[in-house]
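Entry:
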Amino acid sequence: MDHAAVLALYDRDMREGAAPDGPGARVERAGAVVRQTAGALGWNGILWSALDERSADRVIAEQIAYFGGLGHDFEWKLHGHDRPVDLGARLTAAGFRAEPEETLLVGETAEVIRLSPDTRPPDGIRVVRATDPAGADLVVRVHEQAFGTDGTRLRHRLLARLAAAPGTVVAVVALAGDEPVGAARMELVPGTRFAGLWGGGTVESWRGRGVYRALVAHRARVAAAHGHRFLQVDASPMSRPILERLGFQALSTTTPYLYGS
């Protein structure tokens, strides 16, 4: 993989040229930033920026004022290759708080499939698609158990996407009998070469048994069927080693900087 070329393609397709991530969301270019605005339960934030030492503080202040006028908390999604090099420190000085850093991993879909031909669910597990409110509830249930966070916003966004644009989101659940033990999502953006893998999680009692790998392999095959050449993940330290064994490569880092309550 040509890391520099793929990273430039990712920035162009998925950040600077980003599409709204759900009904009611709007993406716009405002000078040196690309931002999304959505409702209170949607994702509001900065997707891409082209800043330098002279413009950064002014643009940061402008975005704080803009989202403040809307009454929304928001996120500045900072990538490790963004400029200026001290942008994270500038965001912190302006009142943002940094969440844990993750690694931007990208894998070629065909290579991920090649490296996981026998990645089937472990014995006793079946993988099903979540396509309705009952399925969304299963995804949220796993999310809350695996990550210990509230799934209200996830449920709202997933149901909205399934209702308005079902062809752009794939949600899958791993079931042990009728009990959900793993879940994950994939976002398909028509016209781009990337599919984004999100929210992959396994409840603690089933970790280390191949559930996560099976969900990655399942989504890779779906992405290939839709013509997406690359898979992209913002990987935690827990998932990164698994993904690298499946052919993913580190291209940068991502850090959410949050502003508001």
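The chain has two domains: 3-103, 106-252.
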